[in-house]
Write a structure and sequence with these properties.
3 domains; alpha+beta; about 15% strand; about 475 residues
């Protein structure tokens, strides 16, 4: 372990000679720590994009080292131990920091031991070795106990090891391997509870185009066959979900130098696990939402039932109040009718009594008139006596006493408050109306109004407005004459 001292000038030369990440690696620090050191020592650093422009051959300006303005807050030199810093960072990364996302956790062995493979991976290896190669040398075993595979026999061991890694890792997490139907095909897939997910592994086939040979150049170009297809040995892995196309579209990975098979398998395992977990969480969430909707619906129905009950109770109370108001109005109308009838009977009786007295006075005048006219005879004639007898009988019949009026029980006053609701009501009668007074319901007819509509004198219609002259239209040539058959 060698501890070195670095000055402002040395640090300035380093950060302007190579990128900050390389300087940090040499000092056993992070680029952030080197940046903080430059800040403490008042050392200018290259701006963003400086190294890219320098690599592109562009002209860049190098900022000079600033002069010390105040020695109180600027560090002139610092001690750095690259070995100690590197060991400390390695230990921190191993003990504290989590592994980077997508980091490879599997490595392909130098020699594959088929006995140590997963039973389903071993079955897939056997099917690939015994299968018949199709177009471009691709073997596609069609079995519901195997995944959807389409690779060449040269990739059989790599595919078997990939399936072994995927199956072993997912079974350790509680995922079952069962046949999964994807549209019209059924292959081995991943099942967790009621969630299913399929997998498809195929070898990437590339198109190769060659230059025509001298013999082909002497023939027409339509006879050339310059394109061919060749299996590359690189794998393509995609997930199949019949119920959710977003999963099938989202995860489609190709093996490449930047994504080796080990990293691809790690992404596949994590994606399958996250998809199945997300499906389970979504199902649980939908179940909770359904229960919440059910509770809300039950609460709504309960509130609706309570509202209807309250509404029915309100209507029943309103109906009771309405009927009670009708009873009270009917009772009041009956009492008013009794009072009015007895009052009108009193007026009618007074009219009948006055009419009787007028008739008797008229009869006395008639008798006196006949007695004065019969000077030769002192007594009235028999016919006159008979008429006067009849007339007096009619006058006596007009008397209210002859009608049994008044009877205090039927024609007198009464206390309305003493009569209970709905009766029994006091007895009542109605005397006939004298001819000298109007009936209570009789109304004086108003003279008819002149409802004739005034005669409407039709106005003289205005003279018609002359229409503007039509635009001149050129007569159309009779083209049909050109098509007449000549005889």
């Amino acid at each position: 372990m060698s501890e070195t001292t670095i000055t402002r000038e040395q640090l300035y030369e380093r950060v302007w000679a190579q990128p900050m990440t390389k300087v940090a690696k040499e000092l056993g620090l992070s680029d952030v720590a080197v940046k903080k050191m430059c800040t403490r020592m008042d050392v200018s650093t290259p701006p963003r994009g400086y190294w890219a422009r320098l690599a592109a051959g562009q002209k860049v300006n190098k900022t000079p080292l600033p002069k010390l303005r105040s020695a109180s807050h600027v560090t002139r030199e610092e001690k750095v131990d690259p070995e100690v810093n590197a060991l400390r960072r390695e230990q921190f990364s191993r003990d504290v920091l989590p592994p980077p996302e997508g980091a490879a956790r599997f490595s392909f062995p130098d020699s594959l031991d088929t006995e140590c493979l997963h039973p389903r991976a071993r079955a897939a290896l056997t099917a690939l070795n015994k299968g018949k190669a199709e177009r471009h040398g691709i073997v596609r075993p069609n079995s519901r106990d195997l995944p959807d595979i389409a690779v060449s026999k040269s990739c059989a061991e790599r595919v078997a090891w990939a399936l072994h890694v995927i199956f072993s890792e997912l079974e350790a997490r509680g995922v079952d391997l069962q046949p999964v139907k994807h549209y019209h095909h059924t292959h081995l897939g991943f099942v967790r509870g009621s969630d299913k997910l399929g997998i498809h592994i195929e070898e990437i086939v590339e198109k190769i185009r060659r230059e025509p040979t001298p013999e082909e150049l002497r023939r027409p170009s339509r006879e050339w066959n310059l394109e061919s297809y060749q299996a590359t040995g690189r794998l393509h892995i995609s997930l199949l979900d019949h119920g959710d196309w977003s999963v099938s579209r989202a995860f489609q990975r190709n093996e490449s130098p930047r994504r080796p098979l080990e990293k691809l398998l790690n992404e596949t395992v994590e994606t399958v696990w996250s998809c199945l977990s997300a499906k389970e969480e979504r199902r649980e969430r939908e179940k909770r939402e359904a229960e919440a909707r059910t509770k809300a619906e039950d609460l709504r129905k309960k509130e609706e039932t309570e509202r209807r009950r309250i509404e029915a109770q309100r209507k029943a109370e309103e109906e009771v109040h309405r009927k009670e108001a009708e009873r009270l109005k009917k009772h009041e109308d009956k009492l008013l009718e009794l009072t009015t009838t007895r009052t009108m009977n009193l007026l009618r009786a007074a009219q009948w009594s006055q009419l009787r007295q007028q008739v008797l006075d008229f009869l006395e005048a008639c008798a006196l008139h006949w007695a004065e006219g019969n000077r030769a005879h002192t007594a009235l004639t028999e016919e006159q006596q008979r008429w006067l007898t009849w007339a007096r009988a009619e006058a006596e019949a007009m008397s209210p006493f002859a009608m049994g009026y008044p009877d205090p029980a039927q024609d007198g006053g009464f206390a309305p408050g003493a009569i209970p609701m709905d009766g029994p009501y006091p007895p009542s009668r109605e005397l006939p109306t004298p001819p000298t007074m109007f009936a209570p319901s009789q109304e004086i007819e108003e003279p008819p109004k002149n409802t004739a509509k005034p005669e409407i004198v039709p106005a003289v219609p205005p003279p018609p407005t002359p229409s503007p002259p039509a635009a001149y239209q050129k007569p159309q040539f009779p083209y049909w004459l050109l098509h007449q058959r000549r005889r």
